């Protein structure tokens, strides 16, 4: 085996380590913590593990770029440019005396997005070993959610068994781990039946986990993925419309058999205290933007009381930062859609990039902060797809049989060596 091949395999293993440590690892750590099996030896887990992983991930990514300059694509450069701009804003405001808690949160947010980007970028998500580990993780996480749910909701804190309850993750941390793992697995799932089973499993799990944003993101992903994979797009669209009409017409009967759950607040957000609070925070952000439209008003809020949407980018990084983060997501997605969504060949790399972009924009528009780690995952998926299309010609399609192999060039190319060629 060549040194390049050995190095490539090593980087893929490091990428997998990063992915499974950050997402399924987070879920399992907090499950053990919540059940009182372990103390909070790693605190809240994500920050210390990210700091431990960062040097290894950066070293391996840099090594890959040194070996193959084409590996550093336009999406990589755009993403690193955005992080550099964000870090500059944080640094300048830190020197000016900004709230140190918000500064630290932003620095951690940069590290989190960077780690997720590199983990997704270097992992071979369509490899059999990755898919099996991702599917196994999903099954284990779903089993935990169903086993420890109380009155139709999963949350370990009320059990009272945690040794360090102050370090226990909220439902949002659990749902984040599940959604990232699901997205990485479903894009490369070839068979319709298995995808349907995974949709049902994931929807049930996130419903019981009471994560409204992630539940909505999952429902948003399903038609995007299925309309892409089907050859009969009009028929599939009709099926989705029929299902929606059936659900709407029988909504009361369906709700009567479901356990009471905050997910149901999605049907009427006016009764949601969380949604009402977010409306007030959005109004505060709009007021800050109106007063400081160009440069924003960095850290002008109390820690945690930020606008739960992409307007938070405008408040903290100014109009340029707001346009920057939206630009790196939306600008690549437009040609990606027209060139890839209706192409005859099907690609797991494509639908991962496009579906991640769709749910990232959805969540940034409705509920997530601008340091959302989905941004890193989306940019990595963009870069992986582009690199695969332009440079990795040795890779076979993720569906269907591999290309036929021939022991001799003349069998593969009958005209090779003929006169006049």
Layout of helices and strands:
Blueprint: H1 3-22, H2 24-34, H3 46-67, H4 74-95, H5 100-122, H6 128-147, E1 149-150, E2 153-154, H7 171-186, H8 192-208, H9 212-229, H10 233-249, H11 251-257, H12 273-291, H13 311-341, H14 348-366, H15 374-390, H16 409-412
Antiparallel strand pairs: 1-2
Describe the structure.
The protein is mostly helical and 421 residues long. It has one domain (3-158, 171-251, 273-391). 67% of the residues lie in helices and 1% in strands. The chain is built from 16 helices and two strands. It has a two-stranded antiparallel sheet with strand order 1-2. Strand 1 (149-150) and strand 2 (153-154) form a beta hairpin. The radius of gyration is 23 Å and the shape is globular. The two termini are 33 Å apart.
The helix fraction, in percent, is 55-70%
Q: Which regions are unreliable across 5 or more consecutive residues at pLDDT < 50? A: 1-7, 393-421
The main pleated sheet reads as: 2 strands, antiparallel
Termini separation: 33 Å
Strand order of the largest sheet: 1-2
Query: How much of the residues is beta strand, in percent?
Result: under 5%
| Structural class by sheet pairing and helices | mainly alpha
Mean pLDDT: 87
Count of DSSP strands: 2
Oligomer: single chain
């Amino acid at each position: 085996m060549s040194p390049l091949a050995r190095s490539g395999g090593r980087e893929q293993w490091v990428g997998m380590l990063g992915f499974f440590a950050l997402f399924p690892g987070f879920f399992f750590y907090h499950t053990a913590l919540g059940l009182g099996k372990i103390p909070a030896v790693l605190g809240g887990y994500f920050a210390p593990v990210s700091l431990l992983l960062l040097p290894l991930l950066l070293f391996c990514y840099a090594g890959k770029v040194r070996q193959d300059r084409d590996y550093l694509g336009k999406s990589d450069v755009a993403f690193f440019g955005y992080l550099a701009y964000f870090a500059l804003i944080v640094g300048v405001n830190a020197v000016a005396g900004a709230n140190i808690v918000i500064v630290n949160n932003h620095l951690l947010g940069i590290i989190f997005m960077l780690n997720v980007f590199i983990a997704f970028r270097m992992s071979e998500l369509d490899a059999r070993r990755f898919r099996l580990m991702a599917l196994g993780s999903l099954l284990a996480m779903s089993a935990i959610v169903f086993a420890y749910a109380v009155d139709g909701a999963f949350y370990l804190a009320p059990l009272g068994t945690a040794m360090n309850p102050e370090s226990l993750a909220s439902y949002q941390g659990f749902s984040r781990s599940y959604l990232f793992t699901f997205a990485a697995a479903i894009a490369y799932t070839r068979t319709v039946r298995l995808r349907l089973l995974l949709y049902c499993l994931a929807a049930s799990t996130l419903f019981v986990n009471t994560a409204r944003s992630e539940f909505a993101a999952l429902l948003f992903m399903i038609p995007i993925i299925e309309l892409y994979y089907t050859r009969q797009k009009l028929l599939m669209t009709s099926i989705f419309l029929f299902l929606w009409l059936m659900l709407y017409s029988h909504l009361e009967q369906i709700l009567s058999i479901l356990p009471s759950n905050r997910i149901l607040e999605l049907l009427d957000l006016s009764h949601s205290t969380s949604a009402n609070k977010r409306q007030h925070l959005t109004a505060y952000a709009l007021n800050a933007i109106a007063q400081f439209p160009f440069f924003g008003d960095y850290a002008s809020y109390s820690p945690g009381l930020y606008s739960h949407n992409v307007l938070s980018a405008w408040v903290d990084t100014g109009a340029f930062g707001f346009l920057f983060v939206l630009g790196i997501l939306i600008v690549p997605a437009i040609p990606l859609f027209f060139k890839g969504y209706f192409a005859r060949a099907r690609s797991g790399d494509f639908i991962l990039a496009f579906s991640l972009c769709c749910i990232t924009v959805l969540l940034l528009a409705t509920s997530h902060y601008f340091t959302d780690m989905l941004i890193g995952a989306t940019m990595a998926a963009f870069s992986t797809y582009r690199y695969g299309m332009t440079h990795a010609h040795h890779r076979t399609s993720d569906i269907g049989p591999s290309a036929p192999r021939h022991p001799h060039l003349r069998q593969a190319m009958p005209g090779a060596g003929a006169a006049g060629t």
